[in-house]
Structure to design on (199 residues):
């Protein structure tokens, strides 16, 4: 798995939703409000409901499925009139299709695991290599311990890499949901932030 791949997919999905929100500014106020409400519902479902599941390696498509359909419904209910509205509407629909594709890619990545053979190779290799380093003949006991320590550290970092790649949405080095809370999408989080500040 490519660690940057997950970041790119998340950024592309969030950017797509943000562009839909921006395109909706060309719509009449009622239609813009409908699109914004649907976009807000979608990003909240992704961050608050789906993200915790992805941290556990679960790819639950149904969690955001209805919210994505709500975004489609909001756009399908609108019939653009002016040329400007038609142009922005066409862009918004195209971006929504991109969002659906990126969502599928994100959930596929969240549900994937490293092949068992690779996991066995990493752990089994560590169990074989570290004891073998003690057989490497060095006159100095200190140098031999340094050598064993260096090999153990290298294997430890390799095992950490296996864990990070196996769960890209979990842990401190995980992919963050922050792109869904920035830029044009930040407006959907401000009331929640104010409410938590009051508490």
């Amino acid at each position: 798995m490519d660690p940057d791949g997950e970041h790119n997919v998340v950024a592309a999905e969030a950017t797509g939703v943000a562009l839909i929100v921006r395109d909706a500014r060309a719509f009449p106020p009622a239609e813009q409000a409908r699109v914004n409400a649907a976009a807000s519902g979608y990003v909240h479902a992704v961050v608050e409901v789906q993200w915790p599941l992805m941290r556990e390696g679960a790819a639950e498509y149904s969690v955001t499925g209805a919210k994505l359909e709500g975004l489609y419904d909001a756009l399908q209910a609108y019939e653009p009139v002016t040329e400007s509205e038609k142009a922005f509407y066409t862009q918004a629909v195209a971006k929504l299709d991109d969002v659906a594709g990126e969502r599928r890619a994100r959930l596929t990545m969240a549900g994937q695991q490293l092949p068992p053979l690779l996991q066995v190779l990493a752990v089994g290799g560590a169990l074989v290599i570290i004891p073998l380093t003690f057989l490497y003949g060095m006159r100095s006991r200190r140098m031999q311990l340094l050598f064993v320590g260096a090999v153990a550290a290298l294997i430890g970092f390799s095992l950490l890499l296996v864990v990070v790649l196996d769960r890209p949405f979990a842990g401190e080095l995980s992919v963050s949901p922050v792109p869904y809370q920035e830029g044009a999408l930040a407006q959907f989080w401000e009331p929640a932030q104010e409410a938590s500040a009051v508490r």
Residues 47 and 178 are 8 Å apart (CA to CA). The helical segments are 3-23, 29-55, 62-76, 83-111, 116-135, 141-166, 190-198.
